[in-house]
Amino acid sequence: MKVAIIGAGMGGLSAAIALRQIGIETAVYERVTENKPVGAAISVWSNGVKCLNYLGLREETEQLGGLVETMSYVDGHTGATMCRFSMQPLIDEVGQRPYPIARAELQLMLMQAYGMDDIRFGMTMVEVGDSPDAATATFADGTTIHADAIIGADGAGSITREYVLGTPVTRRYAGYVNYNGLVATDEAIGPATEWTTYVGDGKRVSVMPVSDGRFYFFFDVVEEQGLPYRRGSAREVLRGHFADWAPGVQTLIDALDPQATNRVEILDLDPFDTWVKGRVAVLGDAAHNTTPDIGQGGCSAMEDAIALQWAFKDHPDDVHAALIAYQEARTERAGELVLRARKRCDVTHAKDPELTAQWYEELRNEDGTNILRGIAGNILGGPLTPATN
Ligand SMILES: Cc1cc2nc3c(=O)[nH]c(=O)nc-3n(C[C@H](O)[C@H](O)[C@H](O)COP(=O)(O)OP(=O)(O)OC[C@H]3O[C@@H](n4cnc5c(N)ncnc54)[C@H](O)[C@@H]3O)c2cc1C
Questions:
Q1: Which of 44, 75, 174, 301 has the fewest CB atoms within 10 Å, i.e. is most exposed?
Q2: Is residue 146 scored above 90 in pLDDT?
Q3: Minimum CA distance residue for ligand 1 atom 35
Q4: ∠ CA 5-11-260 to the nearest 5 degrees?
Q5: Which pLDDT score is estimated for 206?
Q6: Which residues contact 230 (CB under 8 A, 6 or more apart)?
Q7: In the Cβ-directed half-sphere of 386, how many Cα atoms lie within 13 Å?
């Protein structure tokens, strides 16, 4: 059995490691020539951490992960704490601590675990197809490869998805822009072991710890799609959006490196249930592109990888049966996370200002129970976090 994986993001690499764990020959093809991930960091929730543990990366993950002991919401204007509570009840319920991790470091960990030399960099797939006997991918340099199956982990703009669905799809602008980066932790912004979120006016400013005394930060701003943006101008743009916000937010804006601050327009895709065509399947963002509002896109990609391994374990000699089993195991769960994130996105970003005002009021009366219940609801339901946990 030989499986070719297109894309060395967190989905493709997790899948490659997972398949190799059960003795399947794998090959990974990646269009970029070096490890340069977009985005500063990512919160790997407990379901994602369990996937990394399963892939044999428990210690490495613990080393890279930030320690989040508490969570708080802060009134963006006044700086008053709306609620603050321990993460421990969540950790106890789901059986694993979550870890925010710098993206480049997570990516490097996965690449090293799979084997840097085993990744074919600089290979842009331009065409994918299959026949009764083999799946085939063609690359921009003219190379064509054949495998028993091809897994398209080629991200949100996947061309594998286009092949599987038989038609291109248009992603939906979720209505906001996310500015993100890394800064040194600073108590003036938030406690070093807390995930602190300032909210107000449908905007959000958040910091959470990653390793080595750094905060991953992000600002969410409701903006039109396609506005011009000059890299390096983050500080002045954010000062404009958050002029009258609390001192902690001003400290963060002063501390960030404008050149290293990313600006990402947030899009997602309606869930769809066809992930497989013959010997070709999609995985990760190619299969379920979500807004980051519940921090589950990457975790879900890693869950796909585990489910794919289990499907091949159950059907070692039958590619078609394995891929269909994988699809059946994943579409409902992944689609549900996309829709949950969309719902959260709309409340956070004041799609209906009354609902958002009501949420702010709830935050003032929150002891953590409802928020942690919601987070546990996202975490539970994956292959390693059964809902009956
Ligand atoms: C602002 C933001 C914050 C986020 N925060 C979180 C979070 O906190 N927690 C979380 O779990 N998720 C988060 N996500 C989502 C997460 O980043 C994605 O779900 C995850 O990166 C998907 O991994 P992937 O491997 O499927 O795709 P990608 O990471 O996009 O990797 C796809 C790879 O395929 C390669 N590729 C593409 N086309 C081709 C081709 N034709 N040929 C060869 N190679 C190709 C690309 O170069 C890339 O390396 C966030 C997303 C955003 C935008």
A1: 75
A2: yes
A3: 7
A4: 115
A5: 98
A6: none
A7: 2
| Shortest-distance atom of ligand 1 to CA 12 | 25
Q: Across all residues in the chain, what is the average pLDDT? A: 97
What is the pLDDT averaged over residues 315-322? 97
Q: State whether residue 185 is helix, strand or coil.
A: coil
φ/ψ region of 220 (left if φ > 0, alpha if ψ in -120 to 50, else beta) reads: beta
Nearest Cα neighbor of 2 from 34, 22, 21, 27 is: 27
> Is any ligand 1 atom within 6 A of the Cβ of residue 154?
yes
pLDDT of residue 34: 82
Tokens of residue 372, six digits: 């942690």
**150-176 residue pLDDT tens:** 999 999 999 999 999 999 999 999 999
Which atom of ligand 1 lies nearest, measured to the CA of 289? 19
Q: Which domain covers residue 21, as residue numbers?
A: 2-171+268-379
Number of domains in the chain: 1
**Single-letter amino acid code for the residue at 357:** A
Q: Are 151 and 60 in contact (CB under 8 A)?
A: no
Say if 342 falls within a structural domain: yes
Residue 138 per-residue DSSP state? E
For the stretch 10-48, pLDDT in tens is 999 999 999 999 999 999 999 999 877 778 999 999 999
Of all atoms in ligand 1, which is nearest to the CA of residue 180?
Answer: 1
- Among protein residues, the one whose CA lies closest to atom 3 of ligand 1: 292
Please count the CA atoms within 13 angstroms of the CA of 265 that sit on its side-chain side. Answer: 12
Q: What is the mean pLDDT of residues 232-249?
A: 98
- CB-ligand 1 contact for 42 (6 Å cutoff): yes
Q: What distance in angstroms lies between residue 155's CA and the mean position of ligand 1's atoms?
A: 5
Q: Which residues contact 289 (CB under 8 A, 6 or more apart)?
A: 156, 171, 267, 268, 269, 297, 338
> What share of the chain has pLDDT > 70, as a percent?
100
Classify residue 198: in a domain, yes or no. Answer: no
CATH number of residue 136's parent domain: 3.50.50.60
Ligand 1 contact via 220 beta carbon (within 6 Å): no
Tell whether 212 is covered by a domain.
no
CB 291 less than 6 A from any atom of ligand 1: no
Question: Which amino acid type is present at position 21?
Answer: Q
Q: What is the pLDDT of residue 37?
A: 75
Alpha carbon distance 196, 71 (integer Å):
6
Q: Which two tokens stand for residue 210?
A: 């990653």
| Residue 128, helix vs strand vs coil | strand
